[in-house]
Design a protein that fits this description.
This protein is mainly alpha-helical and 107 residues long. It contains three helices and no strands. It has one domain: Phosphotransferase system, lactose/cellobiose-type IIA subunit (Methane Monooxygenase Hydroxylase, Chain G, domain 1). It is 82% helix and 0% strand. GO terms for molecular function: metal ion binding; transferase activity.
Length: 107
């Protein structure tokens, strides 16, 4: 496996982990565990940083005039899509948690 493929797989994996943590947070809200939900969202953000680092590295490589251009592959497109949807899911889930908590008179 090439370095590029490893970076792309790392991006997909980190994005998936981030999204999974966000959905775990939403499940915690169903049982009123808001502190646990916040912890899981914090973990989601932390994992997202790993995905962001990989994405930034790939973008910098592509913009480097001295480097070979990064080939755009289906796997690369999938990785970017996976990363973007994980961010969207986390942001929406964070807002849902705030809404549910305010409805219940939480914090």
């Amino acid at each position: 496996m090439t370095d590029l493929e490893m970076s792309v797989i790392s991006l997909i994996s980190s994005a998936g982990d981030s999204k999974a943590k966000a959905f775990e947070a939403l499940k915690a809200v169903k049982t009123g565990e808001y502190d646990k939900a916040r912890e899981l969202l914090a973990e989601s953000y932390k994992v997202d940083l790993e995905a962001h680092k990989e994405q930034t590295k790939l973008i910098q490589q592509e913009m480097d005039p001295e480097a070979d251009k990064t080939p755009i592959t289906l796997l690369m497109v999938h990785a970017q899509d996976h990363y973007m949807t994980s961010q969207l899911a986390r942001d929406l889930i964070e807002t849902l948690i705030e809404v549910f908590e305010s409805k219940e008179g939480g914090k």
